[in-house]
Design goal:
Layout: H1 7-15, E1 20-23, H2 29-42, E2 47-52, H3 61-77, H4 98-105, E3 109-113, H5 119-127, E4 131-136, H6 139-147, E5 152-156, E6 162-163, H7 178-188, E7 193-196, H8 202-210, E8 215-217, H9 232-239, E9 246-249, E10 257-260, H10 263-267, H11 278-281, H12 307-317
Parallel strand pairs: 1-2, 2-3, 3-4, 4-5, 5-7, 7-8
Antiparallel strand pairs: 6-10, 9-10
Helix pairs in contact: 1-2, 8-12
């Protein structure tokens, strides 16, 4: 939930008894330190930092030229000039001193998408007393995460908003739904399982707990909260969201992610690998037509209310 998960949102969730999170992959380390300090000023409860561990891509000159040619009409329409040379933004966990910052900040929990850090980095995180969570979209991914020593596996179903956390499969190749994935992961691993994907109200939370999950990771339900950092147009789109209003697309970053339908989701093409695609889509984001509005399939059930209120209502409903 990079950009949406503000310190105020993380603190409100933690203060109400949940585990608030900061989407940290896109944050420069100075900003990561500032936002972590802001959370600690607002609450003394545990929170987590989330990072990306994708493979670093390589692109050739022909692919870069084809990408610039694809994006040129959109740049021209928005008066942005010529598309830049595509480059990979420094958002990998091992880049830009993120590991050093994490070890310095020592949040109670760190979570990872797209796999785990290199072994020596992961060992340093664990030696610092930080509990480790990581996302899996298949049973095989969950089993690998357990072998590498995670404290819990986040079983992310196809209904989830935002990027899919796949690292052994492409991510948009017949993704498994939450209700099918969770019990299979529960049966396959010995560590706790956290369900994710399409969990917005108490009925869905009760369902995944009945399937053996020990907890649920919830994102879309908090997007309309006043503490969320999303734009007003994004809020309006969520307010008017239809039950079938999301699409799984690679247009924004080059990796599959679930977003509300808009022009960008249906007209742009993923011509570059993740995260290089970001260097060409980022200038388009000022336009509502091209802004990625990440949302799970239950986005139409999300409501506008303080984050703490939503946490308390979910907790009360399942006892």
């Amino acid at each position: 939930m990079a950009g949406a998960a503000t310190p105020q949102l993380a603190a409100a969730v933690s203060g109400a008894g949940g585990l608030g999170a900061l989407g940290s992959a896109m944050l420069p380390t100075d900003e990561l330190r500032r936002q972590s300090a802001a959370v600690r000023e607002l609450t003394d409860r545990p929170f987590q930092l989330n990072f990306f561990c994708h493979e670093r891509p390589e692109i050739d000159a022909r692919t870069a030229a084809r990408a610039r040619e694809h994006f040129a009409p959109f740049y021209d329409e928005l008066g942005l000039g010529e598309p830049p040379e595509p480059v990979a933004p420094p958002i990998h966990f091992d880049e830009d001193e993120r590991l050093e910052a994490l070890l310095e900040l020592r949040p109670p929990v760190a979570s990872f998408q797209f796999g785990l850090p290199r072994p020596e980095a992961l060992e340093a995180v664990r030696d610092a007393g930080i509990r480790v969570l990581a996302s899996a979209t298949t049973v095989a991914e969950a089993e690998q995460l357990e072998r590498r020593g995670v404290d819990a596996v986040v079983a992310q179903g196809a209904e989830a908003g935002g990027h899919r956390g796949s690292f052994l499969v492409e991510g948009d190749d017949a993704p498994v739904g939450t209700l099918a994935l969770v019990p299979q992961v529960v049966d396959a691993v010995g560590v706790p399982v956290i369900a994710a994907g399409g969990i917005t109200d108490p009925r869905q939370l009760a369902a995944v707990l009945a399937l053996g999950a020990g907890a649920a990771q919830i994102g879309t339900a908090f997007l309309r909260c006043p503490e969320s950092g999303i734009s007003e147009s994004y809020r309006a789109a969520l307010r008017d969201a239809r039950p079938d209003g999301t699409i799984l697309t690679r247009y924004f970053s080059g990796r599959p992610g679930r977003t509300l339908r808009n022009r960008g989701a249906e007209e742009l093409e993923a011509v570059l690998p993740y995260p290089v695609q970001l260097s060409l889509t980022a200038p388009l984001l000022a336009s509502d037509d091209f802004q990625p509005m990440w949302s799970g399939q239950s986005g139409a059930l999300a409501r506008e209310a303080p984050a703490g209120e939503i946490v308390r209502e979910l907790a009360a409903a399942v006892g």
